[in-house]
Amino acid sequence: MTKPLNIGLIGYGFMGRAHSNAYRQVSQFFDLEYQPVLKACCARKEDKIKEFADNWGWESYETDWRKLIERDDIDVIDIGSPNNTHHDMAIAAAEAGKMVLCEKPLAMDTAEAEVMTAAVEKAGVPTMVWYNYRRVPAISLARQLVDEGRIGRPFHYRATYLQDWTIAEDVPQGGATLWRLDVDVAGSGVTGDLLAHSIDTAIWLNGPITSVSGATETFVKERVHQDTGEVQPVGIDDACMFLARFENGSMGTFESSRYARGRKNYNTFELNGADGSVFFDLEDPQILQYFEYANPSTGKKVEDHLTGWRRIHVTNFEHPYMDRWWVPGCTIGYEHTFTNALADFLKGLETGDHTQPTFRDALATQKICDAVLTSAAERSWIDIS
Questions:
Q1: Between 185 and 1, whose confidence is greater?
Q2: 160 and 257 Cβ atoms separated by less than 8 Å
Q3: Cβ–Cβ < 8 Å for 165, 261
Q4: CA 34: distance to chain centroid?
Q5: Residue burial 84-97, b: 16+ Cβ < 10 Å; e: rest
Q6: 143: buried, middle or exposed (CB in 10 Å: 19+, 13-18, 0-12)?
Q7: pLDDT tens for each residue of 238-270
């Protein structure tokens, strides 16, 4: 017997669309006890949220997020609004006994994230943060290879996340479309927006990060603010790079920029170990590259004439999530990662196992982001508590 799960979504932008699509699709592709109901969505501008609700099939809408949270017919609050709103919304939702889903990064900074995590844990409500790249089948396969011992002792982890959409000096900051360039709304630039994804993936694949040393740069120092029309200083980081040490003894390098001409969403990682390596590029998402040096079952080195990188086309039914989608050889896209994540969350409600990343998992990523920014400001290594 299926159980309806009434969703209240806050936000109608890029993430609002991605989440709405997941709620509409998940029950068609996954066999689940809980069935999402698009009960209500919320945003301040009534004309915009009404249009959004009509388009995506939401039953109703609100213009005050507090009223949405107070509604008795809402089970889950999904926060897809800008970063500076997450704190108050998550705490209010937890105190109202609602399950809480939240876009990344979890908060503006570690202090906020700690309060939010304490609130949801005190309330005992299930949580998930939408680090959706964990649910790319190729990345999930990389995790499987690590768990199977195919990488062996890890030595190096390197990640890049490059885009190019803010290079022009006449791009404004702030407002509904460019709030990610406004430090008062976003909290940080590429560190919280892009590298947070890279950090979450790295922790998931290679374990905790214990210390970092970072550097940041803001290439365009002033931009016009969309809301005021005034030229204001730019407070976010346009580029960030940092070195990292992992608890398992391996070393890491991370780089992110929105000034990498020609790179649209170049999100890559490579993990090198004693027995093998994996490499992934989000712009070629159906492929996982794998180098096998030693077989974990036999402990024997692969014969020299057979060594080399192999390109695994991650579309077989044996690969993570792919038995729920199309026939082998047919790829899935960006939007499917949100559906996969939602399916895991709903399955976790059935089994009682909290689906990662929870608020506490996202808090670990937030601490690393803040440590990187502190390190860049102080020009020193920072230990992660």
A1: 185
A2: no
A3: no
A4: 23
A5: bbbbebbbbbbebe
A6: middle
A7: 999 999 999 999 999 999 999 999 999 999 999
Distances (CA, A) of 33 to 18, 77, 346: 22, 19, 8
Asked if 315 and 288 count as a contact pair (C-beta separation under 8 A), the reply is: no
Give, in order, the Cα–Cα distances in Å from 251 to each of 20, 203, 254: 39, 12, 10
DSSP codes of every residue in 58-88: -SEEES-HHHHHH-TT--EEEE-S-GGGHHH
**Residue (of 223, 131, 241) closest to 180 by Cα position:** 223
Residue whose pair of structure tokens reads 């089970």 in the numeric block = 75
pLDDT at residue number 320: 98
Q: Are 258 and 239 in contact (CB under 8 A)?
A: yes
351 CB-near residues (< 8 Å, 6+ apart): none
Confidence label for 306 from pLDDT (cuts 50, 70 and 90): confident
191: Cβ contacts below 8 Å, ≥ 6 apart: 216, 237, 240, 256, 369, 372, 373
Q: Report residue 341 as tokens.
A: 């994540």
**Which run of H or E residues covers position 40?**
strand 34-42
**What is the per-residue pLDDT across 63-112, written as a single tens digit (0 to 9) for each?**
999 999 999 999 999 999 999 999 999 999 999 999 999 999 999 999 99
Q: For 4-48, write each residue's pLDDT tens digit.
A: 999 999 999 999 999 999 999 999 999 999 999 999 999 999 999
What the block records as the tokens of 180 is 């990610």
Distance CA 44, CA 66 (A): 11
Q: What angle do CA 384, 88, 366 make, to 5 degrees?
A: 15
307-323, pLDDT tens digit by residue? 899 999 999 999 999 99
Q: How confident is the model at residue 225 (pLDDT cuts 50, 70, 90)?
A: very high
8 Å CB contact between 290 and 312: yes
Beta-sheet pairing, 239-246 with 209-217? antiparallel
Q: Strands across the sheet with 127-129, in order?
A: 60-62, 34-42, 3-10, 76-79, 99-102, 127-129
* Beta bridge pairs of residue 312: 288
Residue 171 confidence (pLDDT): 96
